[in-house]
From TrEMBL:
Residues 38-218 form the Laminin G domain. This is LAMA1 protein. Signal peptide: none annotated. InterPro entries: ConA-like_dom_sf, Laminin_G, Neurexin-related_CASP. It comes from the Eukaryota. The gene is Lama1. SMART domains: LamG (SM00282). It holds the Pfam family Laminin_G_2.
Amino acid sequence: VTHSIPACIGSMTINSKQLDNKSPVSIFAVNKCYVTVQEGTFFDGSGFAALVREGYKVRSDVNITLEFRTTAVHGVLLGVSSAKVDAIGLEIVNGKVLFHVNNGAGRITATYEPRGTNSLCDGKWHKLQANKSKNTILLIIDGNLVQTDNPYIQSTSADTNNPIYVGGYPADVKQNCLTSKNSFRGCLRNLVLTKGQQAELFDFSRAFDLHGVFPHSCPGAEH
């Protein structure tokens, strides 16, 4: 076995002597344990997860689904960009969810504005679906649909070639369809990107770069 275990380990003794895990000689990628946990990945508000090192190609169609839970009214959910202007982006700004798409001719945005500023940032799970089909984009939050008109109807393909950044992105990386630099604080789960009939569920523990992200457990209460 060459990989770590996604688990909590406590009260370890060797030869009847209890190990002191409060002051280890060295430590790497070990987080706190939680009294209550939920399925999901915890983002502590300081970093990001980077997926698909070789670059994700959005092109004409993509359907993104995920669930999020947060108490913060700002935060990046997901961004895929290119060196040019083509990109897609999902973010929470002032308690609203924004889905931005640029197929090369200009940015268009679908905005979901809840009735109350904090109603999406209430610490409960919310379901999000963002769909780009050629020049049409729509956003569905908890079953509520938002669609937007696209004046750039000739432009249909977002020719992206960069990794998928989730929950934030590095300072030296350009994101053409995100307005926020705030890293997401909260939990995400069930991130699926679908192209045609091909659905891909992303496991954050397989990200090629992780900062401030803890796969496999979403804390209910700290211990």
